[in-house]
Design goal:
The complex is a heterodimer of chains A (309) and B (255).
Chain A lengths: L1 H21 L14 E5 L21 H8 L20 H4 L4 E7 L6 E6 L8 E4 L17 E7 L2 E7 L4 E2 L6 E2 L4 E9 L2 E9 L8 E9 L36 H6 L3 H4 L8 H6 L29
Parallel strand pairs in A: 4-5
Antiparallel strand pairs in A: 1-2, 1-11, 2-3, 3-4, 5-6, 6-9, 7-8, 9-10, 10-11
Chain B lengths: L1 H27 L1 H5 L16 E5 L5 H4 L17 H6 L3 H6 L18 E8 L2 E6 L4 E6 L16 E8 L7 E8 L4 E4 L3 E3 L4 E10 L5 E10 L8 E3 L2 E5 L15
Classes of the chains: A alpha+beta (309), B alpha+beta (255).
């Protein structure tokens, strides 16, 4: 009996050695990963700044886009007919919410036919078709979520969205046309999902808008499906659409002055996205005064210890 | 009965333990990695990271392209211990102390706008030079010979491994873990990380629709001293055809 226990112990040691030593070798990524689940936003990256009017930082806009954006009045969202209009596909990474993803399989083959990213209050469900179905005609219906085809490539999920309804790529009124295309790549590393978005628009973007955002696998299911219920917010149906003449936008300087930012950066000029621009403004930039309010944390952190002041 | 158990034991040790042990020894042996027994890290690279890459600053613009206001640390899960340091940030003091490179350490360097030049220093060491702050990072794929612990540095010590995608697919990712860091800043305006910080990164490549390539660096900074939670960012870079725009500049504590 004693001998058996010793032998059993040695066997476990031998198996343990295999486990330990084989970890030194390269880790092989599966060609596909489990995409379905609830992915909570990590919130440590700032892709929309503070949604202060006339903030186009980090964008490379055409003159048409700048003109349209400067004519935008956020009061448009107070109109009953626009309150539940929602935001387009790009809002998956631009918005503050997490991703609740489910899959649908073909019952005959058990292969995944599609993934769905659930809707939020102001964002429509997005379906990623994985079955190589043909893309609809260019004249087919354009929707907020658009039409998305995906495939596994190099251990990542790659997808392309077309048929997007004309809308916005920033909540501050920066437009995105219905000719825009969005390429996605979803990378999973452990419990972190990095979503890369590359939005191209021949009408409103001089260069692609590239956003990458991190999400962490959530142990509890996310549920953002509160319905949008329009209500009276001071504007009667049929009232004129609130807007500004582009050269008379009263908020033109607000964001600039708040942080002492250069005008061309705030207005979304291409050169401001590259390191050369940083060198260009080095001798003229004056930092804002020390922060006195809302200086700290904003975002959805997974706390490890006590509260952050 | 006992004899057959002993025979089984010997078989198990030989079958399970020894090959794994020998494989591990081979993978940890730099000479063998560079030799013919197993391919070197350079030879086995599932993706090609070499070349010149430029920051494309479409995120965190206000925190990266200009120096943010003193005392602001939005979106960084700073711990209570970090707040007095944030509020006491003094770039002149950093200059006087010769610590102008505090915001160019491994915890932040990939978010500093600039260019990367990625090359192979040797068959098992990937090298990243940055023109912003003229820093050098060395990613070692093989275990270094045992030596006394080196002093902490801005770029620390990085161990790397490829994570290739299972055949028959191609591609993969580079995972890098960096520690032994000198205390630095996550942002130019003095949001700190400590010498106990660890930086975990994944380097991925994505094709761009215009035919170019994008380098995405998913970065997780974990610091038991100055962070309440991991700080996660994912800066990205566009590939450039050559080094004609390479412009080395020294560290600056103010800009």
């Amino acid at each position: 009996m004693k001998t058996r226990r010793v032998i059993l112990g040695l066997l476990l040691v031998a198996l343990g050695a295999r486990t330990v030593f084989t970890q030194a070798g390269p880790a092989v990524l599966p060609s596909q990963f489990e995409f379905a689940g609830s992915w909570a936003p990590i919130g440590t990256e700032d892709v929309q700044n503070d949604s202060v009017p006339v903030d186009y930082l980090g964008l490379a806009l055409t003159e048409d886009a700048r003109t349209r954006a400067l004519s935008y009045d956020e009061s448009q969202k107070s109109m009953v007919e626009r309150q539940c209009q929602g935001w387009g596909a790009a809002y998956a990474v631009l918005g503050p919410f997490g991703l609740r993803i489910s899959s649908r399989s073909d019952p005959a083959t058990n292969r995944v036919v599609s993934y769905s990213i659930d809707a939020w209050e102001d964002w429509n469900e997005m379906t990623i078709w994985m079955d190589d179905r043909p893309r609809p005609s260019v004249n087919a219906l354009h929707t907020q979520a658009g039409f998305t085809l995906g495939r596994w490539e190099g251990g990542a999920l790659a997808a392309r969205t077309t048929h997007i309804k004309a809308g916005f790529i920033r909540k501050t009124g920066v437009p995105l046309s219905d000719q825009a295309t969005i390429d996605w790549r979803f990378f999973r590393h452990g419990d972190v999902l990095t979503v890369l978005m590359v939005a191209r628009d021949p009408v409103y973007l001089v260069e692609p808008e590239i956003i990458s955002k991190g999400f962490r696998l959530s142990k509890v299911p996310l549920d953002y499906r509160d319905p949008c219920v329009p209500g009276f917010e001071g504007r009667e149906p049929g009232d004129s659409v609130p807007h500004f003449p582009p050269d008379e936008n009263p908020f033109l300087d607000e964001f600039m002055k708040l942080y002492n930012l250069p005008r061309e950066a705030v207005l979304g000029y291409r050169d401001t996205l590259y390191p050369e621009y940083r060198k260009k403004i080095k001798d003229t930039y004056v930092p804002p005064p020390p922060c006195s309010a809302d200086c700290g944390v904003a975002g959805n952190f997974v706390r490890r210890r006590g509260p952050t002041p | 009965m006992t004899r057959s158990f002993v025979a089984g034991l010997v078989f198990a040790v030989v079958a399970f333990g020894a090959p794994a042990f020998l494989d591990a020894q081979r993978s940890l042996d730099p000479a063998r990695q560079g030799g013919s027994a197993s391919p070197s890290a350079r030879e086995s690279a599932p993706i090609d990271l070499t070349g010149y890459w430029v920051s494309y600053v479409t995120e965190n613009w206000r925190y990266r392209m200009v120096t943010p206001a003193k005392g602001e640390y939005r979106r960084i899960p700073a711990s209570p211990a970090a707040v007095p340091i944030i509020n006491a940030w003094d770039p002149s003091a950093d200059e006087r102390a010769g610590q102008q490179c505090k915001s160019y350490g491994a915890g932040a360097i990939m978010t500093v706008p600039g260019r990367l030049h990625i090359t192979w220093q040797d068959a098992n060491t990937l090298r990243i030079d940055t023109d912003a702050g003229t820093q050098t990072r060395l990613f070692r794929f093989s275990a270094r010979p045992s030596s006394p612990r080196t002093r902490p540095s801005w770029q620390g010590e990085s161990t790397a491994r490829w994570e290739p995608v299972a055949a028959p697919d191609k591609g993969g990712s580079l995972r890098v873990v960096t520690s032994n860091l000198r205390a630095g800043y996550l942002r130019k305006n003095g949001v700190p990380y400590s010498e106990r910080a660890t930086v975990s990164e994944h380097f991925d490549i994505a094709p761009l629709p215009d035919g170019g390539e994008l380098l995405l660096v998913t970065t997780i900074v974990d610091d038991p001293v100055y962070l309440n939670a991991p700080y996660v960012v994912s800066p990205h870079f566009k590939k450039e055809p050559d080094g004609s725009k390479w412009d080395p500049t020294p560290c600056s504590s103010r800009w």
